[in-house]
């Protein structure tokens, strides 16, 4: 990579980080038309096309969906030797905040490209914390795969070494994008993520499929998380392992939601949680089921049950142990994955 390109990438990242504010969400806004290829070696902020899925089964079957234009910020490491690995970074329910830029910087320092995706601004959404139905979780998965497809065209990025990392809502996308039906809903060839890193995803109502993409998965969970509890994710990890997946799980016992951040613990009374919900959406059959005291229900009854089990009020904030230890764990995981994919 040329010195000029390195400087452009670095300046682009700094401008975005400084403008994000100390404790508020930020948007990646782009006035230019969306790009379909990065063969020109560009970095910085740009728009690209994705879709906003309606029904999940329509998404995996590639039924017509609403087109969407989303944005992202690509930053390449300053000292790149040959095609480098890359990490797609997906945000949570409040949009991009300083935490995502912090992780982008860490990836660059490890020698990896980072691509922070803004799934909200292009869709004119400020947040989904109070109501997750404002945007299907599958939209984040679609954006992640659209980002993968785009990054694979960049001459400075190794298409076989692109991972996805997400937080909370973005963690949902990072985790369930390991399911092969989701990959095939966007990707036409054998392109796939090299790894999936999911911070505190929601697993109570989860997606399932018989076939996985084969990439290793790292899940980082908070033992005291009352927003997206760890227990259902531990069960889901066991289910993935039973299907042959390489899954590593780390639980920080005293950590709450967003434990990797530098924000103090705080109660958020308006946030909606599915912590009391137990359900599954089978991507192969399209069958949605919910489990409750009266047994397992499906179809319309399951949709009603999925709404009835929601609750409000969560705790969010950083944990010293989780915040200090998780960067090294992620770094070791990605180093191992990317070394194998050379």
Automatic annotation (TrEMBL):
> Which residues belong to any copy of the Dienelactone hydrolase domain?
72-261
What InterPro entries does the record tag this protein with? AB_hydrolase_fold (IPR029058), Dienelactn_hydro (IPR002925), FrsA_esterase (IPR050261)
Molecular function via GO: hydrolase activity
Q: Which Gene3D superfamilies match?
A: alpha/beta hydrolase
Q: What UniProt keywords are attached to this protein's entry?
A: Hydrolase, Signal
Q: Does the keyword Signal apply?
A: yes
The residue range of the signal peptide is 1-25
The organism's place on the tree of life at top rank: Bacteria
PANTHER family in the record, alphabetically? DIENELACTONE HYDROLASE DOMAIN-CONTAINING PROTEIN-RELATED, POLYKETIDE TRANSFERASE AF380
What this protein is called in its record is Dienelactone hydrolase family protein
- Native organism: Chromobacterium subtsugae
């Amino acid at each position: 990579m040329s010195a000029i390109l390195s400087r452009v990438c670095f300046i682009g990242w700094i401008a975005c980080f400084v403008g994000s504010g100390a404790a508020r969400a930020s948007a990646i806004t782009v006035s230019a038309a969306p790009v379909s290829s990065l063969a020109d070696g560009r970095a910085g902020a740009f728009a690209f096309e994705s879709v906003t899925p309606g029904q999940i089964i329509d998404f995996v079957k590639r039924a017509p969906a609403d087109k969407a234009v989303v944005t992202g910020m690509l930053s390449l490491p300053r000292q790149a030797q040959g095609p480098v690995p890359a990490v797609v970074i997906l945000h949570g329910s409040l949009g991009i905040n300083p935490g995502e830029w912090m992780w982008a910087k860490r990836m660059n320092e490890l020698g990896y490209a980072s691509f922070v995706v803004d799934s909200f601004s292009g869709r004119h959404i400020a947040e989904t914390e109070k109501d997750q139905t404002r945007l299907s979780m599958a939209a984040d998965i679609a954006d992640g795969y659209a980002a993968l497809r785009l990054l694979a065209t960049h001459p400075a990025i190794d298409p076989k070494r692109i991972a996805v990392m997400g937080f909370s809502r973005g963690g949902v996308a990072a985790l369930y994008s390991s399911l092969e039906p989701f990959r095939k809903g966007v990707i036409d060839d054998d392109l796939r993520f090299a790894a999936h890193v999911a911070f505190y995803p929601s697993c109570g109502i989860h997606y399932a499929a018989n076939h996985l993409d084969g990439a290793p998965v790292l899940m980082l969970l908070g033992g005291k998380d009352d927003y997206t509890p760890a227990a259902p994710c531990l069960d889901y990890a066991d289910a993935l392992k039973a299907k042959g997946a390489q899954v590593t799980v780390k639980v920080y016992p005293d950590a709450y939601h967003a434990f990797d951040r530098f924000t103090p613990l705080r109660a958020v009374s308006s946030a909606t949680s599915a912590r009391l919900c137990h359900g599954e959406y089978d991507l192969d059959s399209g069958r949605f089921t919910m489990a409750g005291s009266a047994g397992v229900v499906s179809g319309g009854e399951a949709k009603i049950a999925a709404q009835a089990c929601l609750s409000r009020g969560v705790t969010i904030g950083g944990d010293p142990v989780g915040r200090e230890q998780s960067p090294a764990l992620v770094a070791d995981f990605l180093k191992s994955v990317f070394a194998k994919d050379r």
